[in-house]
Automatic annotation (TrEMBL):
GO terms for cellular component: fungal-type vacuole membrane; plasma membrane. Belongs to the purine-cytosine permease (2.A.39) family. This is Nucleoside transporter. Its main location: membrane. It comes from Penicillium oxalicum (strain 114-2 / CGMCC 5302) (Penicillium decumbens). It comes from the Eukaryota. The chain crosses the membrane at residues 79-98, 118-142, 162-186, 192-213, 225-244, 264-286, 298-322, 348-368, 389-407, 413-438, 459-481, 496-515. It is found in: Membrane.
């Protein structure tokens, strides 16, 4: 799978090799001051203030690095089995969260699918999306470049900014969902004592604080965050499994059922595939000789196992709504309240478990919060001058405000937002993987990541991206719009936007890229 790589000879810069980095202890404990933000104008007052701020971050052992490439000599020198295990634990902690439990509820509660249909669609959808995210993650050690900066090698300098904007919307949208679910749970634990709004703010502040510490704090937190989550989710399974409805069939005629299956499959695929635009961000400090197969496999397993546990739990809870009046009443108050109701037999300890579930959303929120700070910098050279920590703060303010405004419409946000975000990622991946094929012999010049003159012009990628979106719109099935082709399947349509968008972009891009290479030479 690995292409030949043309690396700039950056390891000859003056930097002592005895500064070893081991992710098992300190994944990013060395950051030369001149690497914090090289684009800051040294002579300007603003540049001087930003430089001083970054030095303060370094003094407190926080990560000041933004989108700059991590050169081979700046990475971990030791790669142990714990380093590989970290890839599994990171994704397992991120996804073993309440937002994925509420995602599973949509199968029976919104699409009218049986437990079996919902579970099969969810598991296979997650596997498909996770394979994409795992493949993209392997480019972190190879390139040392953040995911969206790596996207410049396929989309070009200017079109890649569109992708960055879409990814920012996606990441902040996921943070919004996490905050609302967490707020609902905390509010349900203390009815009348704690509002959903206060719960949202609590989740947002803690997530922002962890992300601010940078990649070292992020990796350390995710290494252990899964432990309480795993315990309480197993307890939730034990308490509620006997109330899961395993016998009721899916609702509707055969064509409608087929359409609903495809739509739920698409949502679950979208939930997993949307990690791909940030999955390489967390492994840029791994050395170049990191095994891509091991990193791919452990990332895939971590994603699939955690998604499956959480989503199947949610499917079970959703299936029992129709037969359990207390569950139905809780669901009308919000998906988070249904999770709290599942712990109700344990009384006080059940409320404690609910709080643990809510706080577990922090692990899921930290990842997009951290990556959003990096992606803001990719928007332009002036944006790059602003330290990542400040952009993290801006992102946290945005998703907190949006969560407070949309806290009463979580189900609608879920069903519309997730699938819509999956469309652009599927189209982008089609272009990304075909550009990889084009570069199979020549490889990538990683030193050119910030040089527009050495990157593709991006016309081929932009046209293919637009064509892919046309296909996605024609085949999308959302509450507010059902495409003409999607209407042909069942009463409510079938969401085929991911697959048609991917295939149309994949068909259009190769001939356009050949023409671009012939006439532009890059």
């Amino acid at each position: 799978m690995a292409a030949s790589i043309n690396l700039a000879d950056e390891s000859k810069t003056a930097h002592s090799d005895d500064q070893t980095v081991n992710l098992d202890q300190h994944p990013d404990s060395i950051f030369p001051a001149d690497h914090a933000n090289p684009s800051s104008p040294a002579g300007s007052r603003v540049g001087s203030l930003l430089k001083k701020f970054e030095q303060q971050l370094l003094e407190y052992n926080l990560e000041a690095r933004g989108i700059e490439r991590v050169a081979p000599h700046e990475r971990m020198k030791r790669l142990t089995w714990v380093s590989y295990l970290q890839a599994f634990l990171l994704w397992f902690s991120i996804n073993l969260a309440a937002n994925n439990i509420t995602l599973g509820m949509l199968g029976p509660a919104v699409y009218g699918l049986s437990f079996t249909d919902s579970a099969l669609c969810a598991v296979f959808g997650v596997i498909g999306g996770s394979m994409v995210s795992a493949w993209v993650a392997t480019w972190g050690p190879v390139s040392g470049i953040r995911t969206m900066a790596f996207g410049r090698y396929s989309m070009g300098w200017w079109p890649s900014k569109i992708i960055v904007l879409l990814n920012l919307v996606q990441m902040l949208g996921y943070c919004l969902i996490d905050c609302v679910v967490g707020g609902q749970i905390l509010s349900a634990v203390s009815p009348g004592g704690l509002s959903v709004a206060v719960g949202i703010v609590i989740i947002a502040i803690i997530s922002w604080a962890v992300a601010t510490f940078g990649i070292q704090g992020f990796h350390y937190y995710e290494r252990f965050a899964f432990i309480p989550q795993l315990i309480v989710i197993c307890i939730l399974f034990g308490l509620t499994a006997n109330k899961f409805d395993l016998s009721t069939a899916s609702e509707g005629d055969p064509r409608t059922i087929a359409g609903n299956r495809l739509s739920f499959f698409s949502i679950c695929l979208s939930a997993a595939i949307t990690y791909s635009p940030l999955s390489a961000d967390f492994f840029v400090y791994y050395p170049e000789h990191t095994s891509r197969l091991k990193l791919f496999s452990l990332t895939l397993i971590g994603l699939v196992v955690s998604f499956t546990m959480a989503i199947v739990c949610g499917i079970g809870l959703g299936s029992g709504i129709a037969t359990n009046p207390s569950w139905e009443a809780a669901y009308t108050r919000g998906q988070g309240a249904l999770i709290v109701e599942g712990f109700a037999p344990l009384d006080g300890f059940g409320k404690f478990c609910s709080v643990i579930i809510a706080l577990g959303l922090i692990a899921n929120t930290v990842a997009p919060t951290y990556s959003s700070g990096v992606d803001f910098q990719i928007l332009g050279r002036y944006a790059e001058m602003v330290p990542r920590v400040i952009w993290n703060t801006v992102g946290a303010i945005i998703f907190t405000a949006c969560a407070l405004a949309g806290r009463s419409n979580l189900s609608e946000i879920f069903t519309n937002f997730l699938a819509l975000m999956g469309y652009w990622v599927a189209i982008w991946f089609a272009i990304l993987i075909e550009e990889f094929v084009f570069r199979w012999r020549t490889g990538y010049n990683w030193a050119a990541w910030r040089d527009p003159s050495k990157l593709p012009i991006g016309i081929a990628a932009f046209v293919a991206f637009v064509v892919g979106w046309v296909g996605a719109i024609l085949c999308m099935a959302q509450v507010w719009y059902i495409g003409p082709l999607a209407k042909l399947v069942g009463e409510y349509g079938a969401d085929m936007g991911n697959y048609v968008g991917f295939s149309w972009a994949a068909l259009v891009y190769p001939p356009l890229r050949i023409l671009e290479l012939r006439f532009a030479g890059r």
